[in-house]
Structure formats: structure tokens, C-alpha cells
Amino acid sequence: MALDAEERPSQPITKFESMLKTDDVYFFDSEDFEDIIHHYLNNGKIALAKKAIKIGLQQHPGAIELKLLQIEVFVFENKLEEAENMLDDLQQLDHRNEEIYIQRANIFSKKDDHIGAINLLQKALDLTDDGFDIYSLLGMEYLFMDDFEMAKKSFMKCVEFDDEDYSSLYNVIYCFEFLEDFDGAIVYLNDYLEENPYSEVAWHQLGKQYFSKKMYKEALSAFDFAIISDDRFIGAYFEKGKVLEKLGLYNEAIDNYETTITIEDPTSHAYLRIGKCHEKLGNEEMAKYYFYHTVHEDPLLDKGWLAITDFYYRLKNYDRAAYYISKAINIDSENPVYWKKSGKINAAIQRYDEADFAFKQAVDFGNYELDTWLLWAFVNEKNENYESAIAILTQGKEFHPEEADILFALSGNHSLLGDIKMARDYVTEALILNSKGLETFQINYPKFCATDWMQNILEQYKNDSK
Asked: Which domains are delineated in the chain?
């Protein structure tokens, strides 16, 4: 596998590249070639790496390490048969070379045989005193298998080898989070911080765990320690801002978001959060200013367009809201939240056909909330598509069988179709579940409620409430 090139190979690399530009042939020892090849592989310069391997093997045809690098390139290029043939030859020469097992494991992994890859990596561990890279590969194989417990243990081993291996530390926390073991993550990070008290990364991750558990004061302290450890750590300021928002300290949150802008170039996410804070503070013009900055900074950030949509929706400026929700949908056309918002906006301006389509899309993309079914049925009712409204409510009832609101709406639509028996059955069932919707039902369906049967029901409930 490719390793980080040290400072030492800078001269061989310069010499090698000079050789490529001339007809001269320079001699390098095999270790120089290894460093040159590692340098090119680490920088994604595969063509130059292949040239260095070819020339290296011409000068050192028996160099096993160079052949292993050739195999690594074969695996990268999916030339698995060539790689396996070379490995077979090398294993006869050096059957205790752990790199042979590592490359075989890479081939198994490419073939989606992750158990086979893990077995080979375990053999490689038995042959080396330095298992850092092997444990990292093991962790990735376990992640491929969704075995987050074993992946977590493997990445923990990497952190034991190198406590500044933040990539592995992030992977450990990722596994804790996937397992929803936030308490375990907190214990692990606190133990890590006992040994590394100035690790801004660990403090930042600890703060995020406390945030997940809604332990906002603890999260605030953790982010403060992250900032003490590195006062230019943008992530800590941003996360601290989110905590302050949760605590209702919007001006302090704005200060932290603005700090991220002063440290580096402004981001759309920072502008969005600042806008949200001003909105909470009632600073409508400032909120609008930052929301527009959000989409100017990143026109593809659908959440920015949604924020502007919500802003105008709350002001009941539905035409503007409709314009901006279409922007969000153009960016993420399969987001049920955006389609539902579109449905509500179009219903508010009585564009019932557009609202019908929007609610259908919302449901098709996975939004099964109670009010989605009720609103979708409502726009069909307004279009006098009573049978469609009944079909929608019947489907919604499968998701919300104990909700009286759906039953009241079914009763009302059956009454509008003239099916009084079904209307009576549904309103009776609704009243058994919850009579709180009765007053609204009277307002929505006055003709049915004026019938003698419903008048008797209403009189009965009026007496019962005395």
C-alpha cells in the first residue's frame, strides 16, 4: 500500500523527473524508487507511478517491494488476474511478507468477499509488529459488512497506535453514532481527552455527542474547550452557534457564526444560520438579507431556497413563496418536505390542481404525516373530486387508523357524495375515538349536520358536556 513520502525523496523525485525530460538514464537504488512511486501514488499521478515502477523493475528485477507496488497498481486498475498471478509468484519467494496478504485482501474486497479479505488481513497481522494500516483496512472491511461493533474496535486499535490519527478517531465516533451509543462515545472521548487534553478534534466530537443527547450546557463547554485548543477551528464555532440557538441565545449564536466568516471565506450554511437567528429575533429585514446571501453564495443549496420560502409563507406572501419553493424542488425534486410545502402554498392561493399534484408527490416520496393526507383530501374536496378525496383518506387511514380527523373527513366527503349511511358510520366511529373535532366538522359540513339524525347526535353531545 502507498505510504506517505518522507522529505528525503524530494531529491530523487526531482532527479527522476529530470531523467524523463532527457534521454539520460540515471541509476536509483530500489528504496529511492519506492519513495518515488509512493509519492506519485499518494498524489494520484498513476501514469508517473507506472513509469517509475517499469524503470525500477528494469534496474532492480528482483525487488519484491517494487513488485508489490506493481501489484497495487494492478489492483487499483482492476487487473485482478495479473495481480493474483504476481502474488502467487511472490508468495513462493517470501511467504511471510504481510504485504502479500494485504494485497490479496484488497483483491478479495474488490470481489465483495469481505469475510475472505478479513481472514487474509488477520494473517497479515500475525506476520507484523506494526498493524496500524492493517487495522485500518480491517475497519473498512467491517464497515462494508455493516459490522459496526468490530469496525469500531479496529479503528480504536489505530487510535491506540497513533492518537493523532483523526481519520480513525472520526470512524470510531461514526460507529458509536450508527449504533446509537452516544453514552459510549462520550465515555470514549472523555478517556481520550484524559491523555490528549488539547485535542480540538476530540472536544469538537464530544460536543456533538452532548448535542445529540440535548445536553446543551455540556456541549457548550466542550466546544469552548475546542476553541481554546484551536481558536481558528471553524467547526467548533459553528457547532457552538447551533447550541446557543437551542438555548435561545440568538445574538450570541450570530456572533459565533460571524466568527466563522471572519476566519475563512463566508459559507452559505453560516449565512443561513445567521438568517434563522435574525428571524427568531424578529429582525425580518436582516433575516431576508442573510437568506438572500445564502442562495447567492450557493445557488444549489436547496435549504436556502426553503428558508426564503418559509419566510414569505409566514408573511402570507404566497406568490413569492410559490416561486422560491419551485427553486428548491428544481434542486432536489425527490424531497417530500418541499413537495408538501408546495402543496400547502398552492392550496393557500387556491391552485388546487397544482396542490393536488404536489401532495401526491409528497406521499410518493415518503411523507405519510396525518396532515398531508388531510390537506391532500381537502384540495380534492375543493375541486369537488369527492371520490378522490375518499380514496386518499382511506389510504391515509391505513397509516393513521386511530385518528378521528380522518374519519370526520371521510364522513364529510361521503355526505357530499350523498352516501348518508357511510357518512353516519364514519362520524359515529370518529366520535367514539375523539369528539374534539365535532365543532370543526359542523363548520365544514353544515348541510349534513343539519339533518335530523346529526341534530340528535349534536344534542346528545351537548347534554353530555353539561
From this structure: 385-466 (1.25.40)
